[in-house]
Amino acid sequence: MLIVSGGFFGRRWELYRVDIKGVEFYHSLRELPKEDGFFVISYGLSAETLSVKVKSSDVPPVIFVRIGGISRETKLVDKPVSLEPLGFSLDKQGYIQRVKQVKGEIEKGTVYQLNLSTKIDFSLKGDPLDLFQKFFKRQPTPEGVPKIFTP
User: Fold this and answer.
1) What per-residue confidence (pLDDT) applies to 151?
2) Is the predicted pLDDT of residue 147 greater than 60, yes or no?
3) CA angle at residue 114 from 108 to 40, to 5 degrees?
């Protein structure tokens, strides 16, 4: 099953349960079937379509999730969850160095804007779906999807 926000279907910003009929992999957007579903484009295809150099990946260029029935998610339960930070992908000195690199690229005119971010690793205590539901309850989004859940 897949839990998604109703914005995907032009419905209220509530959570909906979507049955998954199958997952398929494609090499091009042109291969996608003309039916209901969700698709994910990998970085590799983004590089091809946008002419932007990115890291290569073993992920298939296009992932298509074929969907079936849609029903309103009524089993929202407020269970306790918590996140504990484990570490950052960049230390303070590494981050400062990257900021200097970005400023240099802006000064050279290579880019006019760059979003520099740092990955933060967390340990989750509780169910990932409960965490998503807490976030969604505080700030509903029209196209929110936590992850694919299978029974």
Assistant:
1) 42
2) no
3) 135
Tokens of 97: 């160095």
In sequence order, which ranges of 18-91 are alpha helices (DSSP H)? 43-50
d(CA 105, CA 113): 9
pTM higher than 0.70: no
Q: How far apart are CA 51 and CA 81, in angstroms?
A: 41
Q: Are 81 and 134 in contact (CB under 8 A)?
A: yes
Determine the Cα–Cα distance for residues 5 and 18; give it in Å rounded to an integer. Answer: 10
- Yes or no: say if 61 and 28 are a contact pair by the CB < 8 Å rule: yes
What type of residue is 100?
K
The two three-digit tokens of residue 144, written as one number:
């929110």
